[in-house]
Amino acid sequence: MPYAHITGWGMSVPQKVMTNDDLSKIIDTNDEWIRDRTGIRQRHIASGTETTSSLGTDAAFKALKVAGLIPDDLDLIICSTSTPEYIFPATACLIQDRLGANKAGAFDLSAACSGFIYAMNMGAQSIRSGSVKTVLVIGTETLSRFVNWQDRSTCILFGDGAGAFILQASEKPGGIQGAVMHSDGSGGDYLSIPAGGSAHPASEITIHTGMHFIHMDGKEVYRFATRVMAHATTEVAEKSGWKVEDLSLIIPHQANSRIIDAAARALKLPLEKFMVNVDRYGNTSTASIPIATVEAIQNKRLKPGDKVVFVGFGAGLTWGALAAEWSGPLPSEHYITAEWYKPWARVRSILRRILRILDGIFFGRDA
Length: 367
Ligand code: ACO
Description:
The protein has a single domain, classed as Peroxisomal Thiolase, Chain A, domain 1, CATH 3.40.47. A hairpin with a 3-residue loop joins strand 12 (about 305-315) and strand 13. The protein contains twelve helices and 13 strands. It has a five-stranded mixed β-sheet, with helices on both faces. It has a four-stranded mixed β-sheet with strand order 8-13-12-11, with helices on both faces. It is of the alpha/beta class. The chain is globular.
């Protein structure tokens, strides 16, 4: 059975930064309150031209470059997002087209802030079953488009961004060792976007009552998060045959620095064992774990052979953790990098649309 190694990584955040002081100009809040309660100092906010798929594509090209792969090497694209561009088509398919990944299947996965854990586990299991060799896993969000900028209890928390990993099959032992996934739908009301789905399709009433925005019971989500983070970390470490003390680094979902502090206390581990960057990005939901991972690598906090646990919680309610022995890139077979494919992917997409039109004209719709 092949092992699933993490061989590439990349992140992308919008250029525009919104500080706590910027927020205090539009709502009744202040820098001190936000930093004390959440640890957040600033977040990145998408411009009109930046979208869930554009951020995801940018992170994916970077991850392919690190792995020394080209888009045609991909067998499968899993995009974890709670802010898809459409109900359908899947954002994963928009990214597949922007990458020009001709041979890849693509689908979206919805497990809110735990989504990247779920998606990595699905990618790793596809590799271990032998059905695919190379998987692109993306976590990407434009939460700013679903935030009520008049609601100070939610709008201070969220930011936009994307992160991507490449998973590759190898006979070399290592890579993803184990994962745990949990859910409790009885807590679904604590964190939701009530309208826009089939329960409450968009209407004048849903818009008027703000049901298309993020609604959250912050206290309940906080209580749930502090309960599950430490437990899921211990559970996945034990499942992988490790002790929590053996871990080189824990990369938690970046929602609130107080939640991470509480997890460290419950695990009796020093805070230095945790990667924390919520101060600069806010809560980017499913993108927060890969973004934190990329920064951990840039800061030389991860090296091949390290034992790392990724752990997350979110709407659903969902939570989960994944244990991996850190790998790094496998030897590349290509002389050109993925970024060379960027302009070609655009041309390819336009050509395919033109060919489809010509096909319709010359061979008719019934052919
Ligand atoms: N600025 C100033 N005052 C504020 C603000 C603000 N932005 N927001 C709330 N307050 C006030 C409240 O009105 C309240 O005032 P009152 O006592 O006069 O009524 C007071 O501050 C305390 O409010 P609480 O809601 O009790 O504040 P709390 O300490 O619970 O912190 C917070 C709120 C930060 C949202 C916290 O509950 C939390 O972090 N919860 C977890 C949220 C989370 O992680 N969500 C993401 C989940 S992942 C996913 O799936 C997307």
